[in-house]
Amino acid sequence: MSQNPVHQTELDTLLAISSGLNSTGGNDRFKNIMHQLLSDVCKTIKQFDITDEEFWLAVNYLNELGGRQEAALLAAGLGLEHYLDMRADEKEAASGEEVGTPRTIEGPLYVANAPLSQSFARMDDGSEQAETMWLQGQVTDLNGKPVAGAIVDIWHANTLGGYSFFDQSQSEYNLRRRILTDEQGRYAVRSIVPCGYGCPPDGPTQKLLTALGRHGNRPAHVHFFVSAPGYKHLTTQINLNGDEYLWDDFAFATRAELIADPVKITDSAVAKQRDIEGEHTEVNFSFTLVGATGSEEEGRGKRARVKE
Ligand code: MBD
Ligand code: FE
């Protein structure tokens, strides 16, 4: 591409100064990243001959995004959070390490320090008319050996796709629990079958998606953090098979190995054993953890989280 050398020099000088390359203080890695990022933005402005009006629309959009606390939602919707998973998967594959249950994105709706129970918990507060879900499974290592005392941290939406805390109409920690696995590495919860999530229709994330001709829906899913001393932390989700958005998740989190088949339980003896009245839906999902090589792998990555 031909460029006016005088103007290119002027831009180079501007970007070097604005990203602090000529300053002594600050952080070198951050300076270099900002320099690349600003260069890319300027290149895009030039390439598309972006108007002042378009530029200020974009600046104001960032204000809206922050004002509505939707920056992390947009990161998921643009596939950037999934891209971090792709990179982590790639690094694991390159290292030749064995892999366990696949990771998938955390998303923006986790709340830390949910009530902790041994082996079992009821997750729903009973306020919704909904299909009862019995969710159970086992945590094992790569050899199939049970991992006792693992923490299975579970969160999911209600029948309207809303998450407690973010949806102020729900009770505190509704549909959020941490379960310690038993001697066989097992966990079980009674909850309600969640529905898929949709981005706030009047929010900035949906506004951007609509301008891209995209929807902002997720299939019905359940989130998990699974952790235990000596094992790598796992962040993942399961999708309930049969949802129309199963392979059309706006956040790109679906993976074939993470699809669970809901089973209708009609046997009243099973229901009675679980203290459930009548028919309900059973979901089975087990996890394979990989041994950690250092203690830093045992914890979830640092990220701003509610109540953490
Ligand atoms: C969700 O429930 C979710 O899991 C993600 C990733 C984004 C928005 C809502
Ligand atoms: Fe979610």
Automatic annotation (TrEMBL):
Keyword Metal-binding among UniProt keywords: yes
Gene3D superfamilies, A to Z: Aromatic compound dioxygenase
Domain of life, source organism: Bacteria
Record's keyword annotation contains Isomerase: no
EC number, UniProt record: 1.13.11.1
Catalytically driven reaction(s): catechol + O2 = cis,cis-muconate + 2 H(+)
A single GO BP: catechol-containing compound catabolic process
Keyword terms: Aromatic hydrocarbons catabolism, Dioxygenase, Iron, Metal-binding, Oxidoreductase
GO molecular function: catechol 1,2-dioxygenase activity; ferric iron binding
Pathway: Aromatic compound metabolism; beta-ketoadipate pathway; 5-oxo-4,5-dihydro-2-furylacetate from catechol: step 1/3
Domain Intradiol ring-cleavage dioxygenases: 135-163
Cofactor(s) for this UniProt protein: Fe(3+)
Enzyme class: oxidoreductase
Similarity field: Belongs to the intradiol ring-cleavage dioxygenase family.
Protein name (database record): catechol 1,2-dioxygenase
Organism encoding this protein: Silvania confinis
Organism phylogeny: Bacteria, Pseudomonadati, Pseudomonadota, Gammaproteobacteria, Enterobacterales
Gene: catA
